[in-house]
Design brief:
5 strands, 15% helix, 143 residues, alpha+beta, single chain
Length: 143
């Protein structure tokens, strides 16, 4: 009788990890709740960037030096709600950019163009800084 109880007890204890494992469900990717209002699907983003760019080189070459000032205006739309995936939590964004400026040193007078940008925002709950990774393609005109 004791052997039967011991075998049943071992069988019960041995089946517990399997029962616990079968009860676990995979964690679904769910939208972050209320922490990503500015990054929710359909939200818009506007950026205006201004700067001066200076040509420099450390080698001898025959290329002309071109220094210019440029203003860039971007408009973006969030493509999806942020997904909870640990350190990779975030969302995708599509942006369009128009830029233009003047050459103040070197050949030419003007630079103008447009860019399309695809960006992934690494959105973390309660973050003050949102890093991103982006890729873009576009064209530029200069005289």
């Amino acid at each position: 009788m004791m052997k039967i109880l011991a075998v049943l007890a071992l069988a019960f204890v041995g089946s517990l990890p399997a029962a616990w494992a079968s009860g676990e469900q995979p964690v679904p990717m769910t939208p972050i709740q209320k922490t990503a209002g500015n990054f929710s699907r359909g939200s818009h983003e506007f950026q205006n960037v201004t700067g001066a760019y200076f040509y420099f080189t450390t080698t001898e070459n025959d290329r002309p030096s071109i220094d210019f000032a440029l203003n860039s205006t971007r408009f973006g739309v969030m493509l999806n709600d942020p997904r909870e995936m640990g350190l990779l939590s975030g969302n995708f964004e599509f942006m369009g950019e128009l830029f233009g400026g003047g050459v103040f040193q070197g050949p030419g007078n003007v630079l103008t163009g447009a860019t399309l940008i695809f960006r992934y925002n690494f959105v973390q709950p309660r973050a003050r800084l949102i890093p991103y990774l982006q890729i873009g393609a576009g064209g530029v005109y200069t005289d």
